[in-house]
Amino acid sequence: MKKTLKIFVVLLGSLAAVVLLAVVAIKMYFPPQKVKAILIEELTRRLHREVRMGDVSLSPLSGLSISNLQVSEASTFAQGTFLSAKRFSLFVALRPLLEKRIVVNSVTVEEPAVVVIRQADGKTFNFADLMAGTTAQVAQATRENFAVSALPVKGQTAPEMTLSIAQAQVRNGSVRFVDRSPAKSNADITALNLKVENAGLEKPFPFEGDLKAKAAAFTGSVKAKGVLDWAKGSLKLQSATVGSKDFTISAEGVVGDLKAALPSAALDVTIQEFHHPAVKTPIKGTVHVEGTPQEISFKDLKLALGALQLAGHGRVQGLSTPAPQLSAHLETNEVPVQEVLTITGTKLPPDTKLSGNTQVAADVSGTVQTVQVAAKIQGQYLDITKGTVFKKPAGMACDLQIIAKILQGGAFSQVDSLQARIGPVRVAGAGTYKKINAKAADIDFKIKTTPFPLADAAKLSPAAAASQAALKGQGALELALQGHDDTPAADGVLTLQQAGIKTADADVSGLEGKIAFQTPNALADVLHRTLKTSGQLKVGAIQQTYYRGQNAVLQWNVTDVTEDLSRISGTASLTQGPGNLLNAERLASQFTVARLMLQPLTLLERVQSKGLLKNVGLPSLNNIPFTSLKGNYKLRQGLMEIVFFDLAGGDIQLHTQGTAGLAGDQMLDLQQTVSVAPGLIRGTLGQLAQDASGRVGLKFSITGPAANPQVKLQARELAEKAVKSLTDEILKNPNVKDALKGIFR
Fold first, then answer.
1. pTM value > 0.70
2. Are residues 730 and 608 in the same domain?
């Protein structure tokens, strides 16, 4: 035991002596200044760039250490500094060199800084000259007693040597990328740290690193940990995390083909949190990606935005180009629509309510600047209400299919095809959507329905449902919407075919025709909405509490129609076959059309009800059978000129001309002629007003406000008839006749 211990002490002492001699020899033959001069000369010759360095030390115990190392841009420091490091340390084990093995115990680079410049042509970099020529050559022994590297010079045969690194570190490094090309994709990497252990070219070795990056599209940090197998050209990511203020994304998997021109990857990616300005709720999810820098496919995509779940698959091509191409299929779960509105920050138009669940499926393709979308939105379980105008209850069939292009990064959308179904109504259309700012947009849409049953369409109108009106026949609508999305102008045509409506007190059938309409704000309430409308409407038959008629034809072309008719202008006409008018004033109070077309009768009935015609003895106007009714009207700023209004009947005939105000005081200036059947007006007036056929004709004027009109009977003609009648009676007396003859003899 003592002998063994003695041998060990001798060996240890001998080893210490050898080390001491080696240190002394290096100090003697390779002092720091000499090593520094050799390194500067050799690096300058091989890099063709200027090299500077501070203190240099070389020791078999601590290896090579260089402080303040700097390498210039090509070819001098006048062009700038390409690379710098506060300290570079390299410790190579000496004994393995005898076995043709390079064993690096440690290599450390502290605060390295690299400036990478892409030139204006977009292809040339400031390190291009370093890549030319002997790219495999690292160093060459240039001094008799100093070997820098065992790697060969170009053209020489490489000695079969192995390389292993026990530990390598980069501490607090930085890379600045200056882009002088049109792309101007400048970027900065800071706080770069990298650690490698037991690294070699023939076996896998672990690594870990982190950095901070700042570029136009990204500012954040990157962390990675894994195992690199250089022999196989693969890297196994145990964990990798990319984070910024907007997102945190982690990944694990395999990166392969590292020695090839296009490395490949197969990664499981987890989106821990992603914030997008257009989405109010953070996005979370997972996805599996595979591919190369040229093309990546993804599958098993599962994203969560609150209650909204999104699944899909697809691929991205041209990732290394300025405009990568996306192709994907996406589907959502059945999600409450209110959740979608909250997530997207969407505000509904006034008086609009939306509830229930919806589901979306979409195919998306294109680039960031131009995206093509083919989407289907399921709305069967949605409840949609717009005031008293529209209501789609939950359970009614409803879906929407859109084929569109989203251009200019979302600023402009072109809908090439829109197909919608709401209950029995099917709609087709196309149009554009253009953002003005973050809160407003311009729209230009044209839609058209197929013919639909009016009875089923009425279920979509709360007002129609409340009236308990029974509709029949078919309708079709063409509509154009233009302008701001919150105040769009509407221009449309409603076509009716064999239509009819039946209520508790009315039955209208045989409706045929087209109704054109325009309004500058389709979303405004009735009180603030103006309308321009024209058209022709044929009515087969009308049965109403106050009206009976058939074969009516209405024609009109009017503008500035408001609820009170104070600004209405244009023309209108009415032709009506046989019928019976029971109460014109009440009929006009219920229907705007009757108020316009039957204004002469309405006024005459009102005058009679006030007793202003009691001395005339007209028959009651509460029951007027007629064989025809015709009217022609001109309207200007709420004033109606009655070109003519003729009612022809057996008991009474009426002809009216003049003007009547439709709003305010409703000032009147009318001339009316009434002709009644023989015997309906008795007494002297009836006798004086008779014509040759025995009918009694009266003319009178109606002036002043409609609430208190002034009626004047035009008596001149009656007076002339009275004088003539009196003269005839006198001349019938023989004595008077003879006396007059004597006077004029």
1. no
2. no
